[in-house]
């Protein structure tokens, strides 16, 4: 067996404390904390600093299905099968406010990038948007005809994407509250959604979305043209051999990681359209995965009750270059708005160029594969 090289992902930490399957994980913005939720109804906040005690938060009356740190890291939201959402202060006291959010299981919770609002998705077939600090219900999006598994804001907060057991992924305009597109039957000649969609998220550029399916696939669409960019099982001989339960984009936009019921995590290079790594760590289904906000780490959870933290390693050079462009110094950003805009435009251009290059690579690969 070949020795792992320095660029390979490595298992850094192994957290034990949950008493049932882990359903969700999320890093705080400074990567000092990692939150995880479980079927055991407990929310754990783990400290990345060695020898620090974890916090165990109790309050939900049933399984926790989703967790998300606010952009500032000062708040933590969780959703549960008990139909409530709780907003926690992730410190030793673990104070929380609970409110009845839906009439059925809450499957997903996600803060907008400005932290002012968050979106929830539920088995009651609705997506709801809330004001964070007033914890006030704002409006519902209700065109799905089956359970809604996941809902996420776009990076700029203007769009919401939702995925449902009605086999559709819907794109919503937050200001008009209208569904602007439904990815379902044949989209521009692409394959239809043949199964339930378990998870969906935006690419960091906001220009495309990825959806994980019960049919073992991951599909990526351009949100501007609505074209299917990559049907990853067409490009790769084998992605997963069982349902894909979760996915996460690397902050650079160059990589996508997936978690599957086949017990593996897979890291895909989106630039070259190829499988980089298959990681074996969990015994039984890998249920959730998430990159840290910088991409230096990623965490995974499984039905084996384990939470694992991995060091990425593979992203060191690429991501460093992207971060130079995409992260202006805070002082400059606050004093000169124009500079921030120009840097953001630079970042978007950089990412779109990479996506274009990625598509060209895909076409070359498929041409070579065609006899």
Describe the structure.
- Interacts with POC1A. Interacts with FAM161A. Interacts with CEP44; the interaction is direct and recruits POC1B to centriolar microtubules. Forms a microtubule-associated complex with POC5, CETN2 and FAM161A. Interacts with CCDC15.
- Belongs to the WD repeat POC1 family.
- It holds the Pfam family WD40.
- The chain has 371 residues and is mainly β.
- The chain has one domain: Methylamine Dehydrogenase, Chain H, CATH 2.130.10.
- Helix content is 15%, strand content 43%.
- The chain has 4 helices and 28 strands.
- It has a 4-stranded antiparallel sheet, with no helix packed on it. A 4-stranded antiparallel sheet has the order 2-3-4-5, with no helix packed on it. The chain has a 4-stranded antiparallel sheet with strand order 6-7-8-9, with no helix packed on it.
- It is globular and about 50 Å long.
- About 11% of the residues have low confidence.
